Task: structure prediction
Amino acid sequence: MDGLRAVAVLGVIWWHTWIHTGNPAVICFGLNFERLLVPLGTGFQLFFVLSGFCLYLSYQRLREFSAWQTYRRFVRRRWWRLSPAFYFVSLSTAAMLWIPQGHFSGLTLVGHITWLFYWIPGCEILSPVFWTLEVEWEFYLALPLLFSGPGRRMRFGWLVLLVAGCLAWRFWAVVDAADGIATFGTGHLLAHFLPFAWGILAAECWLNHPAWLARIPAVPAVLGGAGLVFFGRGMESTEIFYLAGPFGSLCKTFSEPILTLGYALVLLSALKASNPLLGWLSLPVMQLTGRLSYGLYLWHWLPSAKFGQMFRTLLGETVWAHYLALAATLAVSFPLAGLTYRFLEAPFISGKAKARPSRTTPATVVSLSSRLPR
Result:
């Protein structure tokens, strides 16, 4: 799981440094190989799938309490897990923006302290990457709905309603867009519920071990999942939107569901005892990067923008500028993420890991969920 988080955060950083250096191209045999790596930019969607999987297991773990107690404990744990690092990075970013400008909006700070920066009118988001955290928070608040009725049937009904609402919203956003191309870069759950839904279904599969899942060979599952990721990302492109003609809106609507279904398949494959294609996820460098992924995600935007602009000016819109900016961004972000993890994340994780297992919860669920929700 930490290896998959590493893939997600490294992909996001790769994508942002690519954008900030002008989307440089590497043309060989008529193909732009940099464009072939564009699915790396869907790392935030992989994070959503992992969150759906991990947080669903976490809520299962807390269900020995009453509904209100469970809800309070769950939200409190999520707040303590994410807020200290988020507040520190937000204040640091605000200071870096305030120093050259000489002024800063107090409303913006209030919006970030309350996690309502997408809901308060006039609140400016401190970092463009923070919108995904707003989506995460809305998912935390909506997740208890899935457990509001007795049995799995009621849970599945809520899931279907939320998925239908997400698809309807996405289709409406495409049709309503002025140029017919919606970006879905909004910080609200309804636009991005599908990745969480696939993560939840993956958690159910992992808990119940359906026979059909056991029959799927590990290698074809990984390759099929990766293929769906590439296919879904291709459906998001402007070129496909225009080539599809009257079906362009449907391509845009179903691109993320297809893409994140691929990530869910890769996730289930990674959880199997051995997979020859995913052994590299267990390498120490991948495990370390996964543990630091939250801090890397929070810190990387300003370095990627500054280094991207600097190397773009020095070397032009070239692949050298891109990868030098990527290396410099990682060199700055890793130490910051390490300090953030040591002082603002690890204390909470250590405290939660010492929690005693529930007598009513399978040991495997407790073991996994005590570590995974990051």
Confidence is low (pLDDT under 50) at residues 353-374. The first strand starts at residue 27 and ends at 28. Residues 2-369 form one domain. The radius of gyration is 21 Å.
